Amino acid sequence: MAFEIIASTFKQKEIERSQLRRTVTMGSIAGGTALFFDFVGLTVNFMDRWIIEGVLTLAHTTMVGILVGCGALIAIRSPRLSAAGKVVQGAIVGVISAVMVSALIGLLAGFHVRDMFVALSPKLFSFLTFDFESNSAVLAVVDPNRAPMGVLLQFVLGAFLGGLGAVIVLLPGFLRRAFVTALCSAVLVGLFAELIQLTLQYDLTVSFREYFFTWEGMRLQGGLTVFGLVFAGTLFWSLRGDAIMKSHGEAHHMIQRGVRYSGWAIALALFLLFPMAAGSFFGQVMMLIGLYILMGMGLNIEVGLAGLLDMGFVAFFASGAYTVALFTADNEYLLLIPGIGRPLIWWEAVPIALVVTLVMGLLFGIPVLRVRGDYLAVATLGLGEIIRLVVLSDMASPLLGGSQGLLHIPRPMVPAPWTETGLFELNDPIWLFYLTLVSSIVAGYFAWALENSRLGRAWMAVREDEDVGQALGINLINVKLLAYGLGAVFAGLAGAIFAVMLTSIFPHSFQLLISINILALIIVGGIGSLGGVVVGSAMLIGTPELLREFGEYRFLAYGAVLVIMMRMKPIGLWPSAARKRELQTLEEAEAVLQARTAQAGQRASAPAE
Predict the structure, then answer these.
(1) Would you list the domain boundaries of the chain?
(2) Which end of the chain has the lower number of beta carbons within 10 A, N or C?
(3) What is the 3-state secondary structure (H, E, C) of 11-63?
(4) The pTM is what?
(5) pLDDT digits (tens, 9 = 90+) for 57-105
């Protein structure tokens, strides 16, 4: 009996220590994140960006989001605590964060550190000490008298927001879902207010735009309206949605299927019409996403299916672009096909570009046939850089233009009987987006067919184990070369569209960063998954473009997405079915191992009879 009491006491103390460690860690994360934003200049930059004009800036939103989010996380990760205990732990997280921010306030009040840290300016000090009267001015000096009040307010606000995060977690599920969804919707509308207004430049939408927005941000009445509508809609559907669907009895499943298909049809129609309504900027962004989808499909064949890590993939992208430019641009570098005697149109040059990139892929794969793993990545990186330097060299300059590039690339033309010439030029990013969309659909079908073919199964076998695949009769040389060649074709098609998008190409447009971005979007979306390529492109290519107003800081969001995704979704946002099965099998094996370990520990700790 005494042994059980002592063991229970030690176990309770261990639980308390782990809880304290967890709380301190979460508070340190909150404070460290806030300090990081302060030191790199994000807080100062965000102070000038209104979410709700005159009420809430992006800097305030970020600070509140960090504290509320960390308070909610500690409540979620403390299932043993009571409701009051979770709120207290959330408040402690806020206090720990306030301690770290208060140390920065003291540093700014007592020392002149701006020579070393440019972002630690008097303007930041006024924000941290809640000096709202001077917050919008460009201050020259720090007022040390504001420090005590600022520290006090940091502690009060930190404890309140951390506890608020825990309270939100404790709300009933339907209420929490409605509140969080509505709040996030209002913040997102305010964040993208300028972009939304670009889509509302019509006479019919003037009143709507002026009610919700100014050119500085969203109006308070607009924010409250968005919050109220989303909150009411989400709450109603959470409470009554299932009942409404089930009340139809036997027609329930048919209604569900109809709603689902109708939703997909409406989403597809909105997607197709959105670029025309939104304007050229959104058309340009969506076209860029489409180009990376095309390249992602090609690299997915090499990396996702065949397991061949290719860091020189941008060379195929450049090959397609240069081929189209050489056969269509009416300049001194024009290549004429015997018997034609004129520049080719885009539709005639694309098949040649695809053949050229196919040959390039085959030649690219020959030197690295026997290289595996990390060495393959280094080797392909070297080959890609060699091709780029050859294009830049004086030797190839008479043929490829060197650093001067190739200019005057004509845009594609399509038949148009309603025009005087009978042709319509795709001279707007919107029309080029539709061209990219059609190309992506066609390429996606071929990528899907290849994945489910005998060749696709051979690729996957080689990816898992080359030696076993060869023992089963797979010709490694043919399979690898086809992976390089067919993957290159997709990149060549993207390069052909890229050339007419810019109407001029330069060697500096094809940097290593493009290969890295393509590989990153495949990993984020899910290696070996076509749907993952689309999702990864939208996340990693579209998001930085939409956040271009924040300059280089937008890449912080890019990096944060990568880190968070690797932590929460290690197999990707849209993993392939094979990856899902592998993960499920691994989780089941780990669960069995943990259960057996626990049983062995119980038998070892049981007193001998």
Answers:
(1) 17-238, 248-278, 280-511
(2) C
(3) HHHHHHHHHHHHHHHHHHHHHHHHHHHHHHCHHHHHHCCEEECCCEEHHHHHH
(4) 0.81
(5) 999 999 999 999 999 999 998 888 899 999 999 999 999 999 999 999 9
